[in-house]
Amino acid sequence: MLKMAMVLITLLMTLPAYAIDGTALLKQVDRNLNPESYEAYRKLINIEPDGKRKEFTMYSAKKGQDKIAVLFLAPASDKGRSTLRLGDNMWLNIPNIGKPIRITSLQSVVGGVFNNADIMNLDYSAEYDVESVSEAAGNYLLLLKAKTKTVAYDRLKMWVDKGKKLPMKIECLTEANMLIKTLYFKDHKDFGGGIVRPAVIETDSPLYKGYKSVMIFAKIKKRAFKDEVFTLTFMPNLDSLR
Amino acid sequence: MKRIAILFLILLLFIPAAVLAEESYTFDAAETEKKPYHFGGYVEFKPVLFGLDHDAAFYKLRFYNDPQGQTLPEWNGRVQLEGSYEKELFRLYAKTNTDLKYGYAGGSERSVFYEAYGSLKPADSLKVDAGKKTLKWGKGYAWNPVAFADRPKDPDDPELALEGYIVATADYIKSFDGPLKTFSFTPVLFPVYNHVNEAFGNDYKLNVAGRFYFLLYDTDIDLIFMTGGSRTDRYGVDFSRNITTNFEIHGEFAYIRNYQKNVIDAQGNPFTVEGDAQSYLIGLRHLTTFDLTTILEYYHNGTGFSGDDMKNYYAFINRGYNVYQSTGNTAPMTAAQQMAEGNYGRFSPQENYLYLRLSQKEPFDILYFTPAVTWMMNTDDQSYSLTPELLYTGITNLELRLRMGIIVGGRNTEYGEKQNDYRIEFRAGYYF
Fold it and tell me: Are the C-beta atoms of residues B409 and B380 closer than 8 Å to each other?
């Protein structure tokens, strides 16, 4: 009888951990990070080992699961450049060259540790399946696997703040579990409209020893866009959305 | 106790440093504010050293009455200014270009509006532009045979800004769910009159061009046409598609009706060949995991000259050069120069070309540093140019590029008859 009671108690104690619906949690994390459709401004800073910095300012518009457009506002050398992502398709439009060219998720239009997939990131739940979820040091640890081969990182290890349901740290891994980069989510801020999320994402990479890139968010705002905004033909006109 | 106090003091000294090491980042709201107007620009300084080939036809053509030494320095400058003003649905945009050159013949300056147009955008799905504008059609990197309403780009520097034409154009966009994700239509009115696009073709014609764009099954497809009489009717199609995330293919096909090609025969007599011409391009872009980008393109120029056509032209130059040397008569060389200003001197004047560009982004973890090498070959005569380059963009708004062009080819080949054996070029460009 005592044995039965012990087993029952053990099962009840472990039940909450197994009861976590990883997919629902990931979707919750996505919604806590951004509304499904929104606009935002970002500053991206690449910091070299000697402390030298290069900064980019960007305007982003995102709609639904698979559409995001980014317009570069500064520096002058990059002003007017824009990138567009429709699912797995990515393009870069450079005003001088004019016509949008196809780019890939692992390239970086800004140099540094952030690549195009980081700059034009979709919802995590749109690109990754939850392989497992567990509790680690009072927080959740999600192990994510890319849904398709076209996703930039094969695997993600995501540490999620249990209370806020927001990512604290993400390790981006290859299929063989080699670390490509780590993203650190910092500085929680109230952006208004019920959006409370990290305002800073830092990243470093063993592939770029000593280098660091930082993304700072501002003016994240829920906004509806027409589908036509997320087209190659519209790319030169993205500034008209601001 | 004294030791503990000292340790504590040392710790106190180090703690502020540790706190400071945790950097704070600022993002001033003013950086995101949109102003109704914008002003910016670009200045460039580009010294070039040419290593001359005294036996080449194009050397003789250019310097027959002013011979140069083994090398020829040239100093180039460029100033581009751009500005825009936006109010509600309306926007005005202008971009000027001034080229400055100081070379063996002294200094020269040419200023022109590259673009100057007004836009009306009543909806996200509709925009109308009128004025001088570049359309930039096509998917190719080095060549665009379907860019019927654009000036040809220089395959040696295909990313340079180009001067536009005076047009009236519109963009209508429609998005869908399903395999066809996007459709857009860009009609173009292209007038050719006195002082309006008059170098384009026959005068007093209102040409009509258009592009239909489809994003269908993750493939960009354009159907393009131009008609109206300034140039013969032409139709084109292009596509671009990612086979995998890091492997893109693209292509263009142009069909040009009744194309007239002015050539000279072996005796130097001019005549015209007329017929339908087909030009096409097929290319790929590939990125490795270690950031090596490969661009490979094959271009067939259906309006180009054959090897025999070019041999006749080179022979014409050589005969004219000999006439000038023996009699001082410049007429044959003047005629040859006029032909060069026509089709013989254009970019990629012959029929078949191969283009390969390898660029390695940030090797040895050096941020913003991109070495590259470009190889461009005329596959008919196997002459080629090889251009290694170093690009550094690490200083905000400053772009530094050092490149060397080496030209290889025998007599009567395209690259062998160019005026240079090599070219060393430094370019410093600053954006503001």
Answer: no
